[in-house]
Amino acid sequence: MISISIVEDHDQYRNLLVKAIEMNKLFKIKEVYSSAEEALDRLYYNAPDIALVDIKLKTQSGIELIKQVKPQLAFTQFLMCTSYQNDDNVFNALKAGASGYILKGSTATEIQDAILDLYNGGAPMSPYIARKVISLLHGQPRNVNSFGLSERELEVLSLLSKGLLYKEISDRLSISPNTVKNHCKNIYKRLHVQNKIEALNKFNTYSMKSHHFIA
């Protein structure tokens, strides 16, 4: 089962998240916190697979919470809750260590899908935010192919860097979405990362200048 903790100070939305998670038998709620301070006291001792965190908590923000706990919670992935997908706070949360986000107002199914996507190595976010992340990461050169990526894996990685979804990549490369997902899993394994954002941290100017890069 996928263990999930929630950090949300709005009672109504916190209850909505709890109900959405409890609807899926693959999920188990580990802890529910109403503030960043409460989460700080207990997250270290009861780490979940995924933590759903409100970006704009009242006293201490979800971004500051992640900055403090992420270094000690290597196996916990953070999924942010936000009202506006183009908010710079979303970008700052990803820079701090979050791996994706959901919009407040999402349906129970959308919330569950985002959790599963994140757990399986995805990074739920809009193309707008993905492009901002990529523009930041392009300034961090490192030889990705020293990890032994295949030509097809380099192609998939370069398309991921443009913010394309699995289905869009499968259409571009004329392969199935499942094949794209398998390539992504291999990429994450070879780059020694857990998800898309961490993989793109290792995507560099070498790949951009290589003949493998897709224009």
TrEMBL record:
Keywords: DNA-binding, Phosphoprotein
Domain named HTH luxR-type: residues: 142-207
One of the GO BP terms on file: phosphorelay signal transduction system
Residues annotated with 4-aspartylphosphate modification: D54
Listed GO MF terms: DNA binding
Pfam families noted in UniProt: GerE, Response_reg
Name used for this protein in its record: Response regulator transcription factor
